[in-house]
Amino acid sequence: MIPVIGLDELRAARLSLKGTVGLVPTMGYLHEGHLSLIRRAKAECDHVAVSIFVNPTQFGANEDLSKYPRDLERDLSLIEPLGVDLVWNPTPEIMYPTGYQTWVEVEAMTRPLEGAMRPTHFKGVTTVVAKLFNAIQPHKAYFGQKDAQQVAVIRQMVWDLNFPLEVVVCPTMREADGLAMSSRNKYLEGEDRKAAVVLFQALNAAKEAYQGGERDAEMLRSRMKNVLEAEPRAQIQYVSCADYNTLEELEMIKGKALLSMAVLIGKTRLIDNFVLE
Ligand code: AMP
Q1: DSSP secondary structure code for residue 82 in this structure
Q2: pLDDT tier, 1 (very low <50, low <70, confident <90, very high otherwise)
Q3: Which of 65, 147, 157, 187 to mutate to test the pocket of ligand 1 (most atoms within 8 A of CB)?
């Protein structure tokens, strides 16, 4: 599998694909979560395109852009057996050439949760995803529920800007102990790796309470906090029980809700979520 890099090359490769195209945008360092999106796209579309691009504009100044894990050869070997038709691996200069000045920004929905912790993050995400949509023109685009707010924000952007495509959301893939798969799990070593399961445990504690009839959102947030606070390596950034569609914090759960959290385990920042239907 030889990735295309430049825009002209990409256009030629895209034109050669007849029928429906499913796009799986990634930042590489692929794991089973990414592969599950690719398999779903393969099952639902005539052709599958995967982008591998560590998008600099979605990283804040003090974040892990320079040390974000990368291994293109390994990624290509994982993709190879899945029957992917097109891999686009642009450079930052191709995505953002000198003189670049156009940004896509979703408003209210990007302010809480991840947006409160990472104020410039979603502007980078929506801009790069809009550029991927324009360049590849997929019929369907596949995203993981693991990044719940990203899914909500991209859905909003697709609706607001009339992108002629369907957003498909795929379930979160987990390790055997429940830790949500993530390229950043590579940073977790030894005791930190063991402690990282606390996010899943906290979400489960709240889900059990919900299944037992608890509808007071603050009680569910407390449940999650109690479990997290019992793990000395965990430092809470936020714990949320919000409306699934608007992402506004709830008092009482009446419809679909999102339990979500961001937690530092040592120096590694992890996010996870459960949807309550
Ligand atoms: P990333 O490379 O982290 O930007 O992720 C690329 C896509 O894979 C995004 O749509 C993520 O939500 C999705 N993804 C990441 N981790 C998982 C996972 N554990 N299960 C399912 N999808 C995932």
Answers
A1: G
A2: confident
A3: 147
Residue nearest to atom 14 of ligand 1 (CA): 144
Q: Which CATH class is domain 183-276?
A: alpha beta
Q: Is 180 in the pocket of ligand 1 (CB under 6 A)?
A: yes
Domain with CATH 3.30.1300.10 in the chain: 183-276
Task: Indicate if ligand 1 lies below 6 Å from the C-beta of 170.
Answer: yes
Going by the DSSP 8-state scheme, the letter that residue 185 receives in this structure is G
Instruction: Determine the residue of 74, 146, 154, 271 to mutate for testing ligand 1's pocket, defined as the one with the most ligand atoms within 8 A of the Cβ atom.
Output: 146
Give dist(CA 56, CA 223) in Å, integer.
36
13 lines ligand 1 (CB under 6 A): no
CATH superfamily of 2-170: HUPs (3.40.50.620)
pLDDT, average across residues 195-221: 98
Mean pLDDT of 229-244: 98
Catalytic, 34? Answer yes
pLDDT in tens, 4-54: 999 999 999 999 999 999 999 999 999 999 999 999 999 999 999 999 999
Res 191: pLDDT:
97
Any ligand 1 atom below 6 A from CB of 26: yes
Alpha helices in the chain (DSSP H): 7-15, 32-44, 72-79, 92-95, 114-117, 121-136, 148-160, 190-195, 198-211, 217-229
pLDDT digits (tens, 9 = 90+) for 127-147: 999 999 999 999 999 999 999
Q: The whole model's pTM is what? A: 0.98
Cβ(114)–Cβ(237) below 8 Å = no
